Amino acid sequence: MEDHRKVLAETFDIIQEYIDSLNNPAQKVNEFMLPEALKSRFDFELRANGTPYNALLDFIRQYLHLSVKTGSKQYLNQLFGGLNLPALLGEFITSLSNTSMYTYEVAPVATLMEMEIVRKMNSFTRFTHGDGTFLTGGSNTNLVAMITARNHLFPEGKEKGMAHLPTLTAFVSERSHFSFTKAANAIGLGTQNLKKVAVDNHGKICSRALTEAIEASLNRGEVPFFIGATCGTTEMGAFDNLAELVPVARRYNMWLHADGSWGGSAIMSPNWRHLFNGIEQCDSFSWNPHKLMNIPLICSVLLVKDASVLREALSSDDTSYIYHNDDSSQYDLGPKSLQCGKRVDSLKLWLAWKYFGDEGYVARINHLFALAQYATSVIEQHPRLELMCPTQTLNVNFRYVPASGDEADKFNHKIRQSLVESGKSMVNYCHLPNGLSIRLILLNPDLEKSDIDRFFRNYLTEAKMIEEKSVTKV
Predict the structure, then answer these.
(1) What are 348-394's pLDDT values in tens digits?
(2) Is 429 helix (H, G, I), strand (E, B) or coil?
(3) Is 467 helix (H, G, I), strand (E, B) or coil?
(4) Residue 171 DSSP label
(5) pLDDT tens, position by position, 52-93
(6) Residues contacting residue 202 through CB under 8 Å, at least 6 positions apart
(7) Are the C-beta atoms of 275 and 247 separated by less than 8 Å?
(8) Which of 132, 174, 179, 251 is the least crowded, having the fewest Cβ atoms under 10 Å away?
(9) Contact 116, 350 (CB under 8 A)
(10) CA 471, CA 474: separation in Å to the nearest integer?
């Protein structure tokens, strides 16, 4: 057996070098390669004979070199990123201790940590008699919210299935996350019975249109049971007006879920808590710390207002081999989860929260909102940049207006692709009613104005280069 101490020391040297590289302006965000080129560059094949540790360390170096540097300050692409050292330490220790969260017996410390985190989160939602559970991503929080709503409102559906229920319908905005569509498929609701409601010019669901859609469903003999609001849409960062949706849900006896997968952590800041007005009257809330709290993937929580609903909706009776009636069984978290094996995602969040505290996270979140406004001002002051929609939260949507008169959608797609292939910056795009939009996401709290300036320099440089090539061709 090779010396574990030596291997671990060399591994952590590699990790330190990687972390240091994230602050190097010359470090590319990615080494762009098409799949066939990457296959020829990296030895993916698994063989009959094993490989010594020194070779594994080389593979680790290659993996880090060829992977996207999501901790880079020029990674502005998806709804995760940055480097959170206390949480990273938690991720290491979680894998080292390697336990599952179904019973207190095998995960005593992690169980109490998860319970404390849920309690703390519910202090922000004001679910005074609430509960919650960690899940495997924001998509699954929406799925479990929908299952819980169905089984709470129609308990017979848990054992007898959808065939014994009336035709149920659920309602979300047309800018909601696609996970609601997948949830409708997964629970047997049917994607056609997920009704997508029109939004206003700011991307927020229209309460009047929602009421009309619910009435139309009732007139068809259907039973509306679920409203999925969004606290931070993936494209525009829009927050649905929860206070307007609460009376609609109560009027029709529907479950009101708030999907805060993207924007949920903003509830911690007094400056932005108004975006969640009405949250205390919702039935459930998705909160993804792996986004705005910069916890390593995956870290997602579903909170519920009524502490009894998760166990009622999700528990199973044939579990005596694992769940025993003993002094600590009331602490077992497995019965209120769809999972059996359940990874410890609480330690990394607990360590980060313990380190930064509420005040530290509030400062980080407020800093990001200020950066979003700064990025917006850069766009507004540049003659060739155009804001595609008002910046509401942390999504800054813009495009370059080509002087050549080229079609803007295709031109900006070329800029974005050229930028990604260069490795200088990584940013994504979306489609808004007025065209293709470059979607700049601000969530890495280590970002400074200089990083924003650098991104725009990179974007404008690529735009100028493409324009010059177009002129040369003509």
Answers:
(1) 999 999 999 999 999 999 999 999 999 999 999 999 999 999 999 99
(2) strand
(3) helix
(4) E
(5) 999 999 999 999 999 999 999 999 999 999 999 999 999 999
(6) 236, 238, 389, 390, 392
(7) no
(8) 251
(9) yes
(10) 5
Tokens of 165: 């229920």
Please name the residue that has the structure tokens 């990674």: 75
Cα angle 402, 382, 429; round to 5:
60
- Cite the DSSP H helix spans in 126-239: 138-153, 156-160, 179-186, 207-219
Q: Please tell me the distance from the alpha carbon of residue 115 to that of residue 97, in angstroms, as a whole number.
A: 19
The confidence score (pLDDT) of residue 2 equals: 60
Gap between the Cα atoms of 101 and 114, Å rounded: 9
Sort strands 426-432 and 435-441 into parallel, antiparallel or unpaired.
antiparallel
Cα angle value 348/53/9 (rounded, 5°): 50
181-191: average pLDDT: 97
First to last CA, the chain: 66
3 state DSSP class of 396: strand
Q: Say if residue 64 is exposed, middle or buried (CB neighbours under 10 Å; 0-12, 13-18, 19+).
A: middle
Secondary structure string (H, E, C) spanning 407-426: CHHHHHHHHHHHHHHHCCCE
Rounded Cα gap, residues 435 and 430, in angstroms: 9
Residue 291 near residue 266 (C-beta atoms within 8 A): no
The 3-state DSSP class for residue 267 equals: helix
Hey, how many other C-beta atoms are within 10 angstroms of the C-beta on 227? 28
Q: What is the pLDDT of residue 472?
A: 61
Whole-number pLDDT of residue 405: 73
Average pLDDT, the chain: 95
Three-class DSSP labels, 348-368: HHHHHHHHHHHHHHHHHHHHH
How far is 248 from 278, CA to CA, in rounded Å?
A: 12
Rounded distance, CA 7 to CA 173, Å? Answer: 51
pLDDT of residue 188 exceeding 70: yes
How many Å apart are CA 76 and CA 440, to the nearest integer? 6
Query: What contacts 449, CB < 8 A, 6 or more positions away?
Result: 371, 374
Amino acid at 111: T
d(CA 177, CA 230): 8
Cα 2 to Cα 61, 280, 415, distances in angstroms: 19, 56, 49
Token match 């735009």: residue?
463
Contact 263, 275 (CB under 8 A): yes
For residue 100, the one-letter residue type is S
Cα–Cα nearest to 283, from 412, 375, 394, 147: 147
Amino acid type, 294: N
